[in-house]
From TrEMBL:
Gene Ontology MF annotations: fatty acid synthase activity
The name this protein goes by in its record: Malonyl-CoA:ACP transacylase (MAT) domain-containing protein
Keyword Plastid: no
GO biological process, one term: fatty acid biosynthetic process
Domain of life from the UniProt record: Bacteria
UniProtKB keywords: Multifunctional enzyme, Transferase
Domain Malonyl-CoA:ACP transacylase (MAT) stretches: 13-243
Lineage: Bacteria, Bacillati, Actinomycetota, Actinomycetes, Kitasatosporales
Pfam families tied to this protein: Acyl_transf_1
Amino acid sequence: MSLDGPLGRTAFLFSSGAAPRPGTGRELLAAGQVFADTLDDVCARLDPYLELPLKCVMFADDGTRTAALLDRESFAGPAVFALQVAQYRLVRSWGVRPDVVLGQAAGRMAAAYAAGVFSLAEACHAVGTLARLLGGLPAQGPHPPRLDGILDAYGRTLATLRPGAPRLPLVCDVTARPVGAETAEPEFWLRRAPVRLAEAVGLLHRSGVRTWLELGPGDRLTRLLPQCLPDGTAAAFALSRDWAALRSGPGADSGTAPG
């Protein structure tokens, strides 16, 4: 189901921002085998690009040297991607499906996977390659000048991929428009222009979106939504990260991950 009817159309928001805290997602390991199996699959695909196994870093004890690796770009990006893909597969196994997806900054690749632009193998190759190139850069703060060279190398990797047209409507956070054939251009994924979140949210609102589900380590985008929506309409929108409520929908007993 999409959460239609009085709640309108459903948008999945794949956010970026701060690196996940150690242990983020642990509560979902018991929510269904789909989450655990998907997380294992994605982490196994990303591990060859990383210095340590990704799950060991994601679920390391807080305050340890291993957990501190999440503050590096080389682990933060893969951790967010793995978490988002596993959450996406989980809620889909519960019967909740998006009508449209939006990826914000580092969340673009998970949104592209959800929209069918990249296979999981291709998306993991892109995320893993970028993580390897970024090396020990910190997850916050200004990027050093050598980032331009890193992005050039990343672009060469993107040029080897074979993206398809989105099978789900995919809205770009930079252009604030639905995307199509431009997903085949490596430069599209390298854009560093200012994010136009308010315009993108406005587009989704005008298309009938009334339910917003943010996937990732937190609720940064849904907390920003009231600032982006027309005055007087914020109270009518369902901003949900209630996993128990989502699980109670049709398909909650499904034990297999969707393709």
